[in-house]
Predict the structure.
Amino acid sequence: MVAVIDFGSQYTQLIARRIRELNVFCEIFPSYVTLETLKKKNVRAVILSGGPGHIYTLEKINFDDRIFDNFFVLGICYGLQILAKHFGGEVVTGEKREYGETIFYPDIDERIFSGVSKKTVVWMSHWDTVVKLPYGFKVIGRTDNTDIAAIKNNEGRIYGLQFHPEVVHTKEGKTILKNFLYSICGFRPEWNPGSMLELVEREIREKVGNEKVVCGLSGGVDSSTLAIILNNVCGKNALSVFVDNGLLRKREGEKIKDIFKGRVNFKYVDAGELFLKRLKGVACPEKKRKIIGNTFIHIFEKEASRFGAKFLAQGTLYPDVIESMSPFGGNSSRIKTHHNVGGLPEKLHLILVEPFKFLFKDEVRGIAKEIGLPDFIINRHPFPGPGLAVRIIGSIDRRRIEILREADSIVIEEMKRAGLYSEIWQAFAVLLPVKSVGVMGDKRTYENVIALRIVKSVDGMTAEWAKVPYDVLGVISNRIVNEVRGVNRIVYDITSKPPATIEWE
Ligand code: XMP
């Protein structure tokens, strides 16, 4: 396997994901991991991640440098600087930071750059630079600003790159990682969704053992996949709890009941009244998210205590985790509180089991296929935990939920009819806190405005607004205005993420 050693880069998980995409197994370890631990894990190659640190903070990092003598090594950005310093090179803090896309000139005769263009775009994000080559190394790539942008040792076992091959902006980054893994380290592409499933099952078995576990089931692909795996691993000791928070899509509750009742140990909790009571008059998006998250957790705690469970399993994904991080806690800033992460109370009376925490949605979809979940669930558009609440801007009441639910169902129906549903990451309606004047049947109307949000994305971390044909947008607009009482105007959201987020709240 590959060990990714984390020096605090926001891209560490992305490195791991790229390696998995190349069908090689990898795990992430903290910077203080020892040689013995890695040997026990049967590690063949080590990737040193980038990090926010300056090279002069290196003395403070507790890093086991025996690692350099025992494995194939690839240092990325800060990782390159660490290895350069270790082998007697010189690293200095430059006058200015080099940030963004840069042209890189690789030595294309080197195996690590096999198949890469002579002049290729890479993503740089660094302040410190290697200015003197370490002993026993040679330069194998440059940029206009950086003479030592890629190095390798004479043995051909240790490599370093100043740029980030893991980000999509590095156009041929995947080829470079592939060359490192297959051609230099000798890995074969053997890791697949089946192996990922085994790993998840093993984690559940080791953590939960013969105890009881409650699973928060929302009906989305993540929690549905988890519910089935828990059922396979823990049998009757697992209870999947579906909470109807009154903020679901049209007929959602019934559909979920039909799929899971009889297939797993299943409980339906009707809590719409409770959620609405707690949300009354609340307009602030973060407050809404916190209230919903807390209410979910209280219900799960109650159900767990009834069932005698001390574990709560959630289908939390990696993007939920990074976007919910506090600006004071991690390296990423908090974008919004994803309910199944940031909504957790400080004193949770249950132990969390989150075996998908390091996976992206498309990887979970791979596992879902493996365990035979129906296509209807696998290819469903993501739906946020706080449901329609974060698509009704401002405060929520029954009438506004009903308006949005009807409009949303038309959007989905028409996207499916046009054959566009599966090409799209998400398509939905948002109810704005704005009224506008219209004319219907010769009469003046003064009604609500609905925004359509339709985006393409690979993992929800970035997204582009979808260029849906005008006639499809036209049909959606006509149907909503004609069929949903209380709406007289439709607008189309043409912002990508960033700078906007996918959901409006
Ligand atoms: P944003 O709005 O942050 O959304 O661009 C990124 C993706 O995450 C979904 N989302 C959530 N999923 N709990 C979830 O499970 C949440 O609280 C939550 N908030 C947003 C969103 O629908 C999009 O796919």
Remarks:
- The radius of gyration is 25 Å.
